[in-house]
Write a structure and sequence with these properties.
- It is a multi-pass membrane protein.
- This is ABC transporter ATP-binding protein.
- This protein is of the alpha/beta class and 624 residues long.
- It has 19 helices and ten strands.
- The longest helix has 53 residues.
- Bound molecules: adenosine-5'-triphosphate.
- Adenosine-5'-triphosphate binds next to α11.
């Protein structure tokens, strides 16, 4: 569970449920009609005992025959059919509005997740987000369509039923209420304890979902290291914790239900004795006594269902609290109030006095980036070199504003990137990470994910050029060519193939600034050389900042910058730095030429019809 989860919202029930009101405004009338239908069904159910009363009293009158009996039976049957029809009507009224609210809230949740900064996603487990997006909203819908309406209707049914009982006999009414009062007190205490345990269970279910998600993702590592047993043990432990919570939950619900069922039964027993005494004393007629017990039977159902309905309402509160915990998370990386528009971008990138530390850095600790000054000329390729963990990836993540600087500025063509809209910034800046993420889509859709319209170039041209530049021609030889499904639910690609698709994606966006976080690490030296030489041509007009883990990657850059102790301590050509900087030589010596995930590139032969014409160079801002 994350820190964020522990902020268990202590908002009152009404305050939490009240947050639904903006959603309810648009579905107010269908919901009202649903409520009225349910209420009418209850009133009809309460009318039946009154018919019994008339029936019994008239049937017991000497000489009345059976005529009234049949009429009474027909009325009871008619009321029964009416009640069933009204219940069906309630379902009809609420089903569309409730699912509409659920869909709307789920879409809003997804939109909000997309907009939240990486820093938020670092803190929250994916299972927690998944369970909030799916099961919590699903539960909220069920509560809205059934629980909320039935709670109101149940309370009103009990109130009307008790009033009718008092009207028939205040003595019997008092006995029933005497039994109902402890239920209210007990119900109130139950509300508090059940709310806590229900929250715990929902959080634990979210953690369990995270565990499943992580082990599915990491199945290769778990298998390769033979850690399946440990993962299973850890999972079983978590599952048992959830089981214990669920048992606790079920037990407290069982105790509540016991009290709620037992007390009315005791009241009915006592009522029967008192009722017979009243009838024999002539203070109550037999019809009223029968009607009283028939009404008590109708009201007993709602009284018994009060517990589960209250519990459902509390769980719905928990679900809503969990939903709004995410919705209330502030987007720390947002558009400025009045964004500056850059127009044509040259691609001059500058880090000016940049400081940065992650949000979880202890106070007083030295910044990870401690005053970075670095200028990249338009069209220049700059390699970023430094020992492992010195902050290279972190520095790169500042350019597309995955994180914001904590001090200083990152400037694009002299403008602080925080003054641009995120959409504009990310149109100009494209990224490829070492750790590639491909979506469950075709190669084409993955590559063209961020591709903008380019005058004079069809999407097919952009795709072909990007695949060529990334030396990812193997895509044409896949079973369905570039329409082959890849990603989690598609064809498995090698590490190097994935990297090249991701690189093609970054290139297809044809950005002014390309940020590459060691995107060639999984390639063998020969393939890397081919990719590098194509990249050099393709990136001729694109400013590129590339993290290099291998000397060959450094060699393709115009200049290299050395990141050391949070600062850029040297900038120059590879040859200059090699000749004049000891730390640079030390870092380069520690870099390996071996790819971490060997990808031979043997499958890279291009189909005959690919790339036979003069290949166009992807130049920013101008059609090739
Ligand atoms: N999201 C994060 N939250 C908190 N700390 C982080 C986060 N990402 C990285 N760090 C920490 O910041 C430091 C620098 O990490 P970074 O990935 O930027 O280094 P790097 O130079 O790119 O390393 P490498 O060469 O091994 O890829 C590390 O100590 C790392 O643990």
């Amino acid at each position: 569970m994350t820190d964020a989860d522990t902020t268990a919202d202590n908002a009152t029930l009404l305050a939490s449920l009240g947050r639904l009101s903006p959603q309810l405004r648009t579905i107010f009338w269908p919901l009202m009609w649903g409520l009225l239908s349910a209420l009418a069904a209850s009133v009809v159910a309460l009318l039946v005992p009154q018919v019994y009363r008339v029936l019994v009293n008239s049937a017991l009158q000497p000489g009345n025959g059976t005529k009234g009996l049949w009429t009474g039976a027909a009325v009871v049957l008619g009321l029964g059919i009416l009640e069933a029809g009204l219940i069906a009507l309630r379902r009809q009224f609420v089903i569309v509005p409730a699912t509409t609210v659920e869909t709307r809230m789920r879409t809003g949740f997804y939109r909000h997740l997309q907009s939240l900064a990486v820093e938020f996603h670092d803190r929250w487990g994916s299972g927690q987000l998944l369970s909030r997006a799916m099961s919590d909203l699903n539960f909220m819908r069920r509560w809205l369509a059934f629980g909320a309406i039935m709670l109101v209707v149940t309370a009103l049914t009990v109130a009307i039923g008790v009033a009718l009982m008092f009207a028939m006999s205040w003595e019997l009414g008092l006995i029933f209420v005497a039994a109902a009062a402890p239920i209210v007190v007990f119900g109130f205490r139950f509300r508090q304890s059940y709310g806590l345990v229900s929250r715990r269970s929902q959080d634990q279910a979210g953690d369990l979902a995270t565990a499943v998600e992580e082990s599915v993702h990491g199945i290769r590592v778990l298998k390769a290291f033979g850690r399946g047993r440990e993962a299973l043990d850890a999972f079983a432990g978590q599952a048992q914790e959830l089981q214990a919570t669920e048992i606790h939950k079920a037990k407290s619900l069982a105790v509540f239900s016991l009290v709620v069922t037992l007390l009315p039964e005791l009241a009915l027993g006592a009522g029967l004795v008192v009722g017979i005494l009243l009838v024999s004393g002539g203070r109550l007629d037999v019809g009223a006594l029968v009607a009283f017990f028939a009404t008590a039977a109708v009201v007993a159902g709602p009284v018994e269902s009060m517990g589960p309905l209250m519990a459902m309402t509390l769980a719905a509160k928990t679900s809503l609290d969990r939903h709004f915990e995410v919705m209330d998370a502030v987007n720390t990386i947002a558009d400025p109030a009045a964004p500056v528009r850059l127009g044509a971008v040259r691609g001059a990138l500058e880090f000016h006095g940049v400081h940065f530390h992650y949000p979880d850095t202890p106070p007083g600790a030295k910044d990870l980036l401690d005053g970075i000054d670095l200028k990249l000329r338009p069209g220049e390729t700059m390699a970023l070199v430094g020992v492992t963990g010195c902050g290279k990836s972190s520095l790169l993540s500042l350019v597309p504003r995955l994180f914001d600087v904590t001090a200083g500025q990152v400037l694009l063509d002299g403008t602080d990137i925080r003054r641009l809209s995120l959409a504009e910034l990310r149109r100009h800046v494209s990224v490829a990470f070492e750790d590639t993420t491909l979506f469950s889509n075709s190669v084409r859709e993955n590559v063209l994910l961020g591709a903008a319209d380019h005058p004079g170039l069809s999407p097919e041209d952009v795709l072909a050029q990007a695949l060529d530049a990334a030396q990812a021609g193997f895509a044409y030889a896949l079973p369905d060519g570039v329409d082959t499904l890849i990603g989690e639910e598609g064809l498995s690609l090698s590490g190097g193939q994935r990297q090249r698709i991701a690189l093609a994606r970054a290139i297809a966006a044809r950005p002014a600034v390309l940020v590459l976080d060691d995107p060639l690490s999984a390639l063998d030296v020969n393939t890397e050389e081919r990719v590098s030489s194509r990249l050099r041509a393709v990136l001729a007009g694109t400013t590129t900042l590339i993290v290099a883990h291998r000397p060959s990657t450094v060699a393709m850059a115009d200049r290299a910058a050395l990141l050391q102790d949070g600062r850029i301590t040297a900038v120059g050509t590879h040859a200059e730095l090699l000749a004049g900087n000891e730390h640079y030589r030390y870092v380069l010596a520690s870099l390996t030429e071996e790819p971490r995930d060997l990808d031979t590139g043997l499958d890279d032969e291009l189909p005959e019809d690919f790339g036979t014409g003069p290949l166009q160079t992807v130049q920013k801002g101008a059609p090739a």
